[in-house]
Amino acid sequence: DEYRKKIEEKLTLDSEGRPFRMLIFRGTQKSSRKSNRLIDELRKEDAEALRNSITKTSRPRRLPKREARILDAPYLMEDYYSKVIDWGRNNVLAVALGPALFLWKWENGKVKKLLQVPGEDDYPTSVSWSHDAKTLAVGYMDSKLQLWDAETSKLVRNLEGHHRRVATSSWNHWNGHILTSGCKDKSIINHHVRVSNNVTSRIKAHSGEVCGLKCSSKSLHRFTDHCGGVKALAWSPHQVNVLATGGGKEDGCIKIWNVQKGTCIHSVDAKAQICGLEWNRHHKEILSGHGFSASGDGNKLCLKKIPQHDQSGRSPDGLTVATAGADETIRFWEAFGPSGDEDSVSHLAGLVSLKTSLIR
Fold this sequence. Notes:
alpha+beta, Methylamine Dehydrogenase, Chain H, four-stranded antiparallel β-sheet
């Protein structure tokens, strides 16, 4: 008890033995500095801006009700097994119209004819930009596979090996000199475009035409869940081990695969031919282009139902999708909007950090 009394005296009495109280200092107008008031105002502005940003980004994203631009595309081939449109990293769209192949610049709308195939029985059936967007691989109905210089409009070389229509090709991401092509002769060929004997390997494991190819790195699996031709393939930009595939009219399903485990993660019955797949790299979404449907519910795009388009290609910025349809038009859709959440919040966080540092 004596000890407790001594402690209380020390805490409640001043040096002269008089009791004191602890008061809260609230300051006066005279003692408040203008700089402190300014910092308080800046913090209020940041808080308000952050609230507005959260409110703004929480609103549902609006999908386009119509196309942003339409191009006439006479003689565009209506063929499920061909890939006649590709959008390069140079922001140039390559499109085959009948026996001719054209290059269209997104920025200024300029059109250049790259090539014209002589004769009536031959025409381009597949186009694929290289990753540096300098070279265009063009496959043909009569089994040719050529490389064209897009800047000079000159033929670089012919790649031998196929014997029927070349329906698809894809450049290797890790070695820009390797081009893989698929053909109606049921074969897949890996070409080294810089050596005289271009065929480095040939794979014959399919029982039908190879009409869709997308290159990745490791893992080897055989997926047999589809019950129709598989043309549409797209690697996820969010997870490197995820692949989306779409089946033809006998199948009508979109399947998402884990290629490391060899398992099907998800399957969606679209009840229509899947002609093209494009991932949205700003959101975890996939856009599918649908063709023929026995139920009459085909010829559309999903995310959004848009009629009469079956092939697709994505712009380099990942925001705009180009579709080619049987009505001989190419349409551009601003379907993939950026999220905006991370940019706006990090920008505000930077401002708050900057302004707070003034009082350190």
